[in-house]
Specification:
Length: 583
């Protein structure tokens, strides 16, 4: 691990932060040998005060904090604004308050503010481009410090008109006169935090800035104001809540910063070309910020030079390309580039090609019936070097029935496949959905004379005597299902084919279905099982399920966990639904 590089700093003025602390706490702090590394002092009513450093936390004395101690500090700082923050005049220190239900302050966090030069050496080339930059990272990683340094560099070194929207006076310090750490940049204060978006627009309209610097974009109105500023040709530099870009995609409030996310229904050809389902998520518009920087640690940042491309790749389940920048022990910037990578493509291609080689599925894979003579001829030509016995086996694999024109292939137990089913009163759309997902050897027919089986509802079979008579005359069996739902249709089709379940975890999975107390729950669980077993596991593709209630989604999550897979709920009620991810 590289050692911490200390940059030259503006006077951090510890004396002013010490003066607001109670005398006993002040004395204990002054005796500490590493006072220059102090991060914050925490004082909670009834507890022993603490001093927090980068690597440790120590107690300041042995007596708990009293209300008199808190009042001693409160009277020596500025006014607490709507976000419960205050400052010390002409410093970067921040004092945050914790209140009880009546509004009385019962805790204080005194955070040490530092103006550090050279913190943006890792991204100085990005700042020079004039593109909008978004900084992401956990609290305390240095986002505000970097933002302050960017404002100073753009104002002093590049002589640009820079306006800082300082909602909590954290960038340029408390008081009417801004801290010298921002250089020639100008600062606009915000009366109340909820008015931040209005001040952002006011800065553009009234003061002709070339650069707007904004800390903590956190609401939808602020995200919209940021887009308005970027569309007016102003460079925007800001921070947002979240460690990575993936957090913004999943955040409906801030997703507009990266272009916004919308569900799109693809055509059959496009879905087949992508190898995905028909309903996918895509970027709605161009991102507000063209460059994103993920501040993983103080001296290790991840750079996304093209946010639009990164978001598109994330939505298509592709690991995006990125650039990792860090500072070595000599103070030099090191860059490591990683190209984008699709983890699912090769796996899906290998599985599909394996299926084509190992199974004779011409009637299913092509979507149309192929003449038996051609299949037999192709196989004979490819088996010229086999002996006579093998050739006889190949010739007998596909056979034509002498009575009908149906194409038949033998099933695992010698049965004739495909089976021609005549549906009566059963939903055709759900039938086709089950057949497509499960790839069952069944063909739907509208001609009763060509049918092998009649599939109908139990109510229809009881009330329609004519249907029963027609089937009896043609010696066609009638299979009845209880309801027009995917689980019952699936069960009926499997019963027609005589298929047995061959899952090792059948008894455990059956327990999930036994918990279902309604038709909706049973259908939702069956939909989940089909998606996992027919798409997610064999094809390595994510799947979105239909919108369900919270209780049903919980059952679906539990079933997905049974398969050792991961799932997320997304969307707004009543359209909130499950997305299942491959392993």
């Amino acid at each position: 691990m590289p050692e911490i590089i200390s940059f030259p700093t503006i006077n951090e003025d510890f004396r002013k932060i010490l003066e607001i602390l109670p005398p006993t706490i002040k004395e204990n702090l002054e005796q500490h040998p590493h006072l220059d590394q102090l991060m914050e002092v925490v004082m909670d009513l009834g507890r022993i005060p603490e001093a927090r450093f980068a690597s440790q936390t120590i107690e300041l004395g042995t007596f708990p904090i009293t209300k008199e101690d808190l009042n001693y500090c409160i009277t020596r700082v500025g006014i607490f604004s709507g976000d419960n923050r205050a400052g010390i005049e002409r410093t970067l220190h921040r004092i945050s308050a914790i209140r009880n239900r009546t509004g009385e302050i019962i805790g204080l966090t005194c955070r040490i503010g530092r103006a550090i030069f050279g913190t943006i050496s890792m991204i100085s080339d990005l700042v020079e481009t004039g593109k909008s930059i978004l900084l992401l990272g956990r609290p305390g990683v240095g986002k505000t410090t970097a933002l302050r340094e960017i404002a100073r560099v753009l104002a002093d070194d590049f002589e640009k008109r820079v306006i800082i929207i300082d909602t909590s006076n954290e960038i340029a310090g408390d008081g009417d006169v801004p801290h010298p750490a921002i250089g020639r940049a100008r600062r606009m204060q915000v009366a109340r935090p909820e008015l931040q978006h209005q001040v952002m627009i006011e800065a553009v309209e009234n003061h002709m800035p070339e650069v707007i610097v904004i800390d903590e974009i956190g609401t939808e109105l602020e995200a919209q104001a940021a887009r308005t500023i970027a569309e007016r040709g102003v460079q925007l530099v800001g921070t947002a809540h979240g460690n990575r870009l993936e957090n913004l995609i999943k955040n409906p409030t801030l997703s507009d910063l990266v272009g916004g996310i919308q569900a799109v229904t693809l055509g059959d050809d496009e879905a087949r070309r992508r190898g995905s389902q028909k309903t996918v998520l895509e970027r709605k518009a161009s991102p507000t910020f063209e460059i994103a920087v993920e501040m993983l640690e103080r001296q290790r940042w991840t750079v996304h030079n093209d946010v639009a491309k990164t978001i598109d790749e994330l939505l298509r389940n592709i690991e995006p390309g990125l650039e990792i920048r860090s500072i070595n022990s000599q103070g030099e910037v090191e860059k490591i580039e990683q190209s984008s990578r699709n983890n699912n493509t090769s796996t899906s291609r290998d599985i599909n090609s394996l299926d084509l080689v190992s199974k004779p599925k011409g009637w299913r894979s092509s979507g149309s019936m192929m003449p038996v003579a051609l299949l037999t001829q192709d196989r004979q030509e490819s088996q010229d070097n086999h002996n006579h016995f093998d050739q006889l086996i190949e010739k007998s694999w596909y056979q034509r029935e002498e009575i009908t024109d149906k194409v038949r292939t033998p099933g695992p137990n010698g049965e004739d496949w495909p089976v021609y089913v005549y549906p009566y009163g059963v939903s055709k759309g759900q039938l086709e959905q089950v057949l497509e997902v499960m790839e069952l050897p069944i063909v739907l027919t509208k001609d009763l004379d060509e049918a092998d089986v009649v599939l109908t509802l139990r109510a229809q079979a009881k009330t329609h005597s004519k249907l029963r008579q027609l089937a009896k005359n043609r010696q066609i069996p009638v299979h009845a299902i209880k309801a027009n739902s995917i689980p019952h249709i699936t069960k009926g089709l499997r019963r027609i084919l005589g298929l047995e379940e061959q899952r090792g975890s059948e008894s455990l999975e059956l327990g999930f279905f036994n918990q279902a107390s309604s038709e909706d729950e049973l259908e939702a669980l069956e939909e989940t099982r089909l998606a996992v077993e027919q798409i997610v596991i064999p094809k390595g593709q994510p799947v979105e399920l239909l919108p369900r209630s919270g209780r049903i989604r919980k059952m679906q999550h539990e079933l997905v966990e049974h398969y050792r897979l991961h799932s997320d709920s997304f969307g707004e009620e009543p359209n909130r639904r499950l997305r299942i991810y491959p392993a």
